[in-house]
Backbone:
């Protein structure tokens, strides 16, 4: 039994979608990861569109909504959830996966509510992403990553998670974090630490 057949066992919805349309949008601002994943998914039969920003992702969805998407949650110019939301509004049957460096239940719930089919914590490899895209069962896992994030990155992710939960309201986020509004704005305008 080959990899594709194993993936589709009991998953006729995914099989039909993949057979009908193999388009895949990948949005990630980590260029080496983006290039590796695009190549790996092309080898698995997808027709890949790879972009690095929310703006490019939204443009790709508006031009031709893909059947599948793999989108990083935190991008240099915004939030990948905006791309997932646009994709689901234009193509409700599309299967979108959100990737993030900070896997927690709150972020997973937000991603699923915004239209993601699944949620994976980075680092995720091509096989894991491939199976998540074509699997009919959602799997929100809390496995600890092998390379944990720095304390600065954890802080940055926490602040952005609260910001999302406050529906991107800076004043409310600052109040809940007991932080000065200007300090919060400076943090939100910076790129994520590695």
Residues:
């Amino acid at each position: 039994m080959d990899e594709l057949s194993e993936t589709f066992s009991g998953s006729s919805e995914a099989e039909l979608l993949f057979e009908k349309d193999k388009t895949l949008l990948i949005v990630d601002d980590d260029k080496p990861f983006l290039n590796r994943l695009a190549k790996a998914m092309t080898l698995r039969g997808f027709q890949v569109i790879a972009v690095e920003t929310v703006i490019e992702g939204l443009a790709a969805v508006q031009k031709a909504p893909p059947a599948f998407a793999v989108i990083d949650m935190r991008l240099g110019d915004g939030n990948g959830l905006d791309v997932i939301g646009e994709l689901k509004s234009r193509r409700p049957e599309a299967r979108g996966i959100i990737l993030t460096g900070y896997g927690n239940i709150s972020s997973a719930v937000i991603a699923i509510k915004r239209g993601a089919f699944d949620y994976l914590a980075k680092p995720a490899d091509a096989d894991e992403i491939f199976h998540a895209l074509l699997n009919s069962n959602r799997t929100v896992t809390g496995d600890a990553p092998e390379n944990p994030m720095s304390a600065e990155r954890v802080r940055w992710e926490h602040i952005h998670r609260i910001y999302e939960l406050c529906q991107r309201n800076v004043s409310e986020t600052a109040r809940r974090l007991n932080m000065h509004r200007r300090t919060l704005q400076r943090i939100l305008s910076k790129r994520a630490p590695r």
Q: What stands out?
A: Residues 1-11, 138-142 have pLDDT under 50 and may be disordered. The CA atoms of residues 53 and 77 lie 6 Å apart. The beta strands are 23-27, 47-51, 68-72, 74-75, 78-79, 95-100, 118-121. The chain has ten helices and seven strands.
